[in-house]
Amino acid sequence: MTFVQLIECRTSRLDEMNRLMDEWVEKTRGKRTATHAVVGTDRSDASHVVEIVEFPSYEEAMRNSNLPETDEIFRGMVALCDEMPTFTDLEVVRDAQLAEDTARRFFEVLATPGDLPPLNDLLDEDVHSVDPVNPGPTIGLDAVRAEFRMWRGAFDFAFTVEDLVAQTGRACARWTWDATHTGDFLGIAPTGKRVTMTGMTMCGFGTDGKITELWWQHDQLGLMQQLGALEPLER
Question: How far does the signal peptide extend, from start to end residue (predicted)?
């Protein structure tokens, strides 16, 4: 079971503490069992520092604590604090992957029949979308929605998310796209053909949980071949 340690202290020497943490990260490379660490300062009291460290289990946390480098950093940390740090040990009983849920909902909504929803509950107003179909990035919610409408106007489609990996601020989806070519697409008149395409999308998230970046990679060449657009080049 995932285990989290909450460390709180007061210090006016945060820069020195950060350098101390960087030194510990370098010295424990290949030995530490901590998988994720977040450090924050209280908005109402900048001297109040909170660190959240995640481990695969309590046992792994104890192994990490017993490293000589950990003891060294603790003594250095105490010297930088205005008072003795406090430690709270937490067994994780719920771990909600919100980025994963948002990414899955994005692909579902993108293929929703009828008018394209506003998407402002999923995408940031200044979202950037990078798609190999386009010569450069598409910037802004309105422009990104127009790009999605182009695809929706050319195809009736659905996504199947085959795999999705999420971490803080990022989610990467591997998907299969099944569609019927019903409208003009890059100058290709509707063919009525059933087509399929595989690809991956990396989503970046802002602090409010909305998607701020979309990086697309997909088999565009295979799609054009299925539509018959490459046949003249093969003769």
Answer: none
Q: Using the predicted structure, report yes or no on whether residue 234 has a pLDDT greater than 50.
A: no
Q: What is the pTM of this model?
A: 0.64
* End-to-end C-alpha distance for the chain, whole angstroms: 60
pLDDT (0 to 100) of residue 230: 78
Tell me, yes or no, whether 86 and 104 share the same domain: no
CATH number assigned to the domain comprising residue 106: 3.10.450.50
Which domain covers residue 219, as residue numbers? 98-227
Q: Is there a domain that residue 165 lies in? A: yes
CA 158, CA 109: separation in Å to the nearest integer? 10
Maximum Cα interatomic distance, the chain, rounded to a whole number of Å: 79
Adjacency order of strands within the sheet including 170-181: 138-139, 123-130, 211-218, 194-205, 170-181, 155-167
Q: Does the structure show a pLDDT above 70 at 233?
A: no
Contact 104, 160 (CB under 8 A): no
**Is the separation of the CB atoms in 116 and 142 below 8 Å?**
no
Domain assignment of residue 214, yes or no: yes
